[in-house]
């Protein structure tokens, strides 16, 4: 974890801006892979729940690359949470003797479960698990996690866009992509705003708008509906 700040200077800046209520960290997207996944599961076995480890072993026995990548990503999620959570909670005066369990709401929103006697001291000090939030994003070569403890906050969402992946696309593609997730009013405003923009400016505006909506949908816990079958019934509409 110590090397991620030098590899990715943007994470250092995000940490500086985050303040005392937030923690953010990143690992390379391929940090967990075929060569080290077994070791990662063994060395973190006390932090992972038996059900999670059993699910990982079941999925790793599959020949499906997608299932195996799911395991790599899920382990990375938990390693980032275990890096950030103790320091964040201690900074608020909460001592914990166990790691929060990473779970999901019925709609798929990640949540940190803090049950049992291990959190008794924290609860006696005023800790409320509903005020603890987590969000993940990954694109390009980064896997990013942010956690926050903010009393009264209803949700948090983060998102990154790997710009080089889109820089090879034409302006026509960017406008078609924007049309998928922007409402009619948003798209009309976007067209006026980019009327005299060059390709790079248009790329930045499309990416920033999409990332903002994706972050908002994560904070709401709904996901984003952008057409082409993406997004469920409760997903945030364009």
Description:
The protein is about 45% helix and about 15% strand. The chain contains ten helices and five strands, in the order ααβαααββαββαααα. A hairpin with a 5-residue loop joins strand 2 (about 100-105) and strand 3 (about 110-115). The longest helix is centred in the N-terminal third of the chain and has 27 residues, at about 65-90. It is globular and about 60 Å long.
Report the C-alpha radius of gyration, rounded.
20 Å
Read across the widest sheet, the strand sequence of neighbours is 1-5-4
User: What is the averaged pLDDT score?
Assistant: 84
How many alpha or pi helices? 10
The SSE order reads: HHEHHHEEHEEHHHH
Helix content: 40-55%
The counted number of beta strands is 5
Structural class: alpha+beta
Poorly predicted segments: 1-7, 227-232
Layout of secondary structure:
Elements lengths: L3 H4 L1 H10 L3 E7 L8 H7 L6 H11 L4 H27 L9 E4 L5 E4 L6 H5 L7 E8 L2 E8 L14 H4 L3 H11 L2 H10 L5 H22 L18
Antiparallel strand pairs: 1-5, 2-3, 4-5
Give a summary of the structure in a few sentences.
The protein is α+β, with helices and mostly antiparallel strands.
Tags for this model:
3-stranded antiparallel sheet, two-stranded antiparallel sheet, 5 strands
């Amino acid at each position: 974890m110590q090397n991620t700040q030098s590899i990715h200077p943007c994470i250092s800046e995000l940490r500086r801006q985050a303040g005392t209520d937030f923690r953010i960290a990143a690992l390379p997207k391929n940090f967990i892979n075929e060569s080290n996944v077994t070791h990662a599961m063994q060395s973190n076995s006390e932090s992972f729940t038996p059900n999670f480890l059993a699910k990982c072993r079941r999925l790793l026995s599959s020949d499906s690359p997608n299932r195996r990548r799911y395991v790599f990503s899920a382990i990375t999620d938990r390693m980032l949470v275990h890096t950030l959570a103790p320091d964040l909670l201690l900074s608020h005066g909460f001592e914990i003797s166990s790691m929060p369990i990473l779970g999901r709401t019925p709609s798929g929103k990640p949540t940190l479960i803090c049950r049992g006697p291990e959190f008794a001291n924290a609860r006696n000090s005023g800790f409320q698990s509903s005020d603890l939030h987590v969000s993940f994003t990954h694109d390009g070569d980064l896997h990013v996690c942010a956690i926050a403890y903010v009393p009264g906050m209803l949700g948090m969402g983060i998102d990154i866009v790997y710009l080089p992946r889109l820089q090879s696309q034409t302006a026509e593609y960017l406008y078609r992509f924007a049309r998928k997730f922007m409402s009619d009013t948003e798209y009309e405003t976007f067209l006026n705003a980019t009327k005299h923009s060059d390709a790079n400016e248009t790329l930045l505006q499309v990416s920033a708008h999409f990332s903002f909506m994706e972050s908002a949908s994560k904070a709401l816990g709904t996901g984003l509906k952008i057409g082409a079958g993406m997004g469920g019934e409760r997903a945030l509409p364009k």
